[in-house]
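Moderator note: this is an archived Q&A kept for reference. The question asked for a predicted structure of one protein chain; the sequence and the answer are reproduced below.
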Amino acid sequence: MADTLARVQKDVRFWQRLLTFAGYKPGKVDGVNGRKTKAAAQEWQNDAERIKAEIGSFDERSERNIATLTPETQRSARIWLKAAKAVADAEGYDVRIICGTRTYAEQDALYRKRPRVTKARGGQSMHNFGIAWDIGIFRGKEYIGDHALYAKVGKLYNQVPGITWGGTWKSFVDEPHYQLEKYSSSSAARNAFEV
C-alpha cells in the first residue's frame, strides 16, 4: 500500500503542497523532507488509518490508490466504494479504485501519451490535488472498460454528501471519475494548492 503513496511523496515539494492543501502543517514548501514534513505526514497517516478502521478496507489496488487521496477524500471514496462493491458483487463483478492522486509530472507524462488519454496537463486535473479518483469494473482479474455497471454504481454518488460524478458532466462524460465538490474548477483548486 505504501508504494503508491511513496511515489507521490517522492516529489517532496508536491507532497508538501498536498499536505498543506489537506490542512496539515509541513512547514515551508522547500523540497526538504524535514521534521515538520514528517510530522505532518504522520498526522495524515493517523487520520487515514482512523478513517479506514471506521469505514472498512478493500482490495489491495483500491487501498494503494485511496492512500494517495487527502483524508477528507479518503472518507468519501471509502463510503462510496463500500456501496458500489455491494451493487457490483450482486451482479458478479467487482469495483476497484484504479487511480488516485497524480503529481504534476505524472499528469504531464499522461498528457503526452498517444493515443491521448487525458486533456489535462499538470495542475489542470482534480487528480493533481488529492480530491479525485477513477474506478474500474472487474470480473476476476479482467478489467472491463465498457459496461452498464459504470452508470449503475455512478448513481450512488448522490448518497455521499460532497462528491460529484463524471457521468453527470455535459461537455465530457467520464463515468469512471469521482471527485469532491469542494472546488468549482481545477484552476480554483490549483490556486488553493499552490499557495
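Archived answer notes: The chain has a mean pLDDT of 97.
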